[in-house]
Amino acid sequence: MAMKGPGLFSDIGKKAKDLHLRPEADRLHRQRLRSDGLTSTAVKKGGLYSLDVSSVYKYKNTLVDVKVDTESNISTTLTVLDALPSTKLVTSVKLPDYNSGKVEVQYFHENASFATAVGMKPSPVIDFSATVGAQGVVFGAEGGFDSATGKFTKYTAAIGVTKPDYHAAFILADKGDTIKVSGLYHLDEKQKTSAVAELTRRLSTNENTLTVGGLYTVDPQTVVKARLNNTGTLAALLQHEVKPKSLLTISGEFDTKALDRPPKFGLALALKP
Length: 273
What we know:
The protein has an 18-stranded antiparallel barrel. A hairpin with a 2-residue loop joins strand 1 (37-45) and strand 2. The protein has one helix at 14-19, and strands at residues 37-45, 48-59, 62-69, 74-81, 87-95, 97-109, 112-119, 125-134, 137-146, 151-162, 166-173, 178-186, 193-202, 207-219, 222-229, 233-243, 246-255, 264-271. It contains one helix and 18 strands. It is mainly β and 273 residues long.
């Protein structure tokens, strides 16, 4: 199913987040393969190593994603495309914690999208989100409701703008306590080089975090990313396509203001037959 319309709420500001390599080096950027594939990820934190192996299988309009880590946790995600017209059904569970199960329904329309996720336990947390938009401008909101306490766990609002040369987002999160402004700009017509910046302000503590980063496409098979924030955290990532749709990713992160701390290193290999 080709996703249409403005996309999900989680897509607002996603391009800037992806270029930032995510907050931690051990959360490696991985491409989710749309066919049978195997991904192996190794991470070093100081003197400790962790390893996980995940596999994705596709049968007709169904995707099955299974991941096993070194702590014997088994995460399974089942995705059914076009369960109903323009609708995607996603179920997930992380064993041995049976209460971690969740069922999510996503609906896509030409000018709107909706998503609802419900935990698989007697008094679940219900997450819901919606977006509306057209011509590259999107308005969205999301919320979370705890049926056990009868209280909202979160509510967030966002605005996203997508144009051929740039992407921008304004997000009001953490029940109005956090403001995030991000932007990504392509520096050339072929989009081989991009720059990104994100400013986060937490109103309750008056804390500001500024992160800047960049992406450079060395050749059709190789991409380099880097980011630096005002706390001194520097991270870099190299991703190379060793063969069609098979990716090797190497990442690293260290604190430039605390060089005595051990850096983080990550290695991921995604293979497709």
